[in-house]
Amino acid sequence: MDNNWQRPQRAHWVLGATFFAAFGLLAAWLIHIPYMTVDGPDGRLTLAEKTARQQTQRLTMEPLRGPIVDARLRPLVLTTESYDIFADPQLVQEGRPERGALHAAKSDATLGPTAGLQAALFLDRGYAANRARAAEQLSPLLGLEPGEIDHLIADHPDKHFVYLKRRVDRETRDKIEGLKVWGIGSVADGKRNHPDGQLAVHVLGTTGYDNEGTDKLELSQDRRLRGESGHRNVEMDGHRRPIWISPDGFEPVKDGQVLQLTMDLAVQSFAEEAIKNAVAKYRAKGASCLVMDPQTGEVLAMANYPSFDPDDFEKAPAYAVRNRLLTDPYEPGSTFKSFISSVALEEGVVHKGEMFDCHNGVFLVNGRRLTDSHPYGMLSFEQVVIKSSNIGMGQIGIRMGNDRLYEAVKRFGFGVSTNLGLPGEGRGLVHPLNHWTKLSASSIPMGYEVLVTPLQMVTAWCALANGGTLMKPHLMKAVYGPDGRLIDDLAVPASVRRVLRQDTADYMRREVFRGVVLDGTARDAFKGCPYRVFGKTGTAKKRDPHGKGYSSDLFVGSFIGAAPLEHPRLVVFVSLDEPDRSLAYYGGTVAAPAVREILEKSLGYLHVPADVTEADAAATHLVSAHDH
Q: Which residues, including other chains, have CB under 8 Å from residue 569's CB and lie 6 or more apart?
């Protein structure tokens, strides 16, 4: 009796113990599952970590690249709304195969050993039909051939994201979304927009597709302009669709800063128009222009022609893309006489009014034959510069000697980068003094045996215009945060050193460089000009690209000028590269008229009053009458 009663009781205990043991093992297993590890893209992950990654996605929010504005806060570069069109190749191919193909595949499943292969072939035809249909629909909107689109998708069958076209506008995006093509989507992107087209692109530069600067100012100021990405965590459903933005893990985006330049949009447009017209008139290879405030070193304009499209710069020739004002040093020719003559007067090597025999245009120096463009006899020191006599300057250079000449060249900053802040700026070339020869004393004063960048030339010439102080050129005026708060004030002028006494600079400006315009190599270009311009011409032979020595057909014609005479506001440099020799090539003919045009328009725009006096007008009239 007792045994019969105990038997069921033991069975219940055994069953219960077994149940609880099994339940415990199952619970332990369930608890252990999240901690089991699997291989992941970043190493081994627990299942809990993998699940969390699948349910939560950390999304990156890209910042807007900061704008670049001119000195008056007018936009030069902006970031505008654009979109990238992409495809999910797996969705495109797996989403909606042709019904006929699916039906055929199912029917063929009963055909025996080859059924699986035949079904795969039929299904692949269905996928191909999807791709082809998608490509046909997208082709006219994306500007791509259907075959190009089809290959982009077909070549990446295992990916979920392939770019089809970057940076399309909202209208195009809306049309594509309206097609409702399975597996095709868009993501917002920012496109750099130049409101004035190609204006100032040689300064502003270009950007890549990933919001990074690739050239010029966009590159050198990339850290300021790019901003900082933000992040947010998003909860996903089983189909990887976002359903909730998690409050934790949110990092706000920081848009790029605002760069204000010293450049003036209007002055830049005057410069670009003038050199474009000069290139067309004299059939030149190209031209460059630089406008600077001599009192502060502020760059108001930097222009090169030919130019390029910033949205398609890869196809432009390197000559058109380079900012040649910084990157292409050249032998300056007679504009260099400005500096040597000024130092010679400063150091007492020559005296005001001193006469030089220019030997009627031909003179032998150390076995070298110096020539002038016109035969001159006796010329005063001032007339040597005004008439741009090579023979007279050669004699002045020999008096100075190599040591003094070398010191004069270095004093004005040649051979050293100005550190304007744009990539690719050259230092020019000033050979070490121990490499100079006995011929250097007559070559250097004429602007040969030395290479300078136009930026160095204008920076040095500003010292002649402002009373003898070499200023550091600068392009940046201020930096603002995206909220408009001033971050960095960069407008304070910085002087490098004094290179001439005030009295020397004043005399050269008033009596010599003004004479170049009144009665010298640039007089024809400035007749009737409402401003008292002063300056210096330059005509330099280029090296023969096919042999030794200098070419007899290739020249750089240049002019550098400033105004008004007593309180100079602007220094303007223009050079024409390889003008057609059969038309003209002297700097006073091919470059000086463009300088006049830029000065007149820019000074008028800046509300600088005309300063020509009756005495100036009478002097100009007498010179003109003498010419006739």
A: 293, 294, 295, 563, 603, 606, 608
Strands 68-69 and 258-261: parallel
| Residue whose tokens read 């230092």 | 427
> Long-range contact list for 376-381, CB < 8 A, 24+ apart?
379/355, 380/353, 380/354, 380/355, 380/356, 381/341, 381/345, 381/350, 381/351, 381/352, 381/353, 381/354, 381/355, 381/356
Say if residues 587 and 559 touch (Cβ distance below 8 Å).
yes
Active site residue 417: no
HEC string for 347-360: CCCCCCCCEEECHH
Mark the ranges of the chain whose per-residue pLDDT is less than 50. Answer: 95-126, 622-628
The string of DSSP codes covering 609-622 is PP---HHHHHHHHH
pLDDT at 439: 94
DSSP codes joined into one string, 389-435: -HHHHHHHHHHHHHHHHHHHHHHTTTTS----S-TT----EE--GGG
Strand pairing of 355-357 and 362-365? unpaired
Alpha-carbon distance 267 to 176, whole Å?
42
Length of the chain: 628
Are the CB atoms for 250 and 59 separated by under 8 Å? no
Q: What does the pLDDT read at residue 159?
A: 74
List of domains in the chain: 2-56 (no CATH), 58-261 (3.90.1310.10), 265-311+325-481+488-627 (3.40.710.10)
Question: Would you state the pLDDT for residue 234?
Answer: 64
Return the structure tokens found at 202. Answer: 């040689």
* Alpha helix positions (H), 508-555: 514-519
Phi, psi of 497 (to 5 degrees): -175, 165
SS3 state at 625:
helix
Q: Which residues pair with 292 in a beta bridge?
A: 299, 571
Measured between alpha carbons, how far is 131 from 134 in angstroms, rounded to an integer?
5
Q: Alpha-carbon distance 325 to 337, whole Å?
A: 20
SS3 74: coil
Quick one: which of 604, 605, 564, 602 has its CA closest to 271? 602
Q: Residue 615's pLDDT is what?
A: 66
How many angstroms separate the CA atoms of 76 and 476, rounded? Answer: 13
Q: How far apart are CA 371 and CA 358, in angstroms?
A: 9
Task: Give how far Cα 606 sits from Cα of 267, 293, 429, 531, 600, Å.
Answer: 9, 12, 36, 13, 10
Q: What distance in Å separates the CA atoms of residue 354 and residue 510, rounded to the nearest whole number?
A: 17
Spot the catalytic one: 186, 220, 307, 334: 334
Q: How many helices (H) and strands (E) does the chain have?
A: 23, 25
193-213 b/e (C-beta count within 10 Å ≥ 16 → b): ebebebbbbbbbbbbeeebeb
> What pLDDT shows up at residue 102?
34
Kind of pairing between the strands at 450-451 and 368-371 = unpaired
